[in-house]
Amino acid sequence: MKIGELSRRTGVNTHQLRYYEAQGLLEAERATNGYREYDETAVLRVKQIRHLLAAGLSSEDIAYLLPCAIGEEPELIGCPELLAAMRERLGKLDEQLDRIMRSRTALAGYIEAAEQTGKKTYELFA
Question: Partners of 75 in the beta sheet?
């Protein structure tokens, strides 16, 4: 199938499909006229990629995971490369969450302090 049909069948625009190919996530043969030709497995592969992207994984992470992916959702077979990549990504997410929580706590403290200072200043001039 050509890229336009793959786009229609998956709901993913052709620009994104070309990006997936450039990242090594999706493969296409080239017809004699130079057009991309995808086989039926490309539909499943694109759906797997979309699910993994929705999980917050990068295209680099997904490149490691796809060989271990089965089904549309996909179900991942616990091969060592996969587990190492997912643990690393989880660690990065935990670090981001920690930074966000520290920022939130600091911002809430500044708001509380500013509200208290504002009340005292208002009371002095009232």
Answer: 70
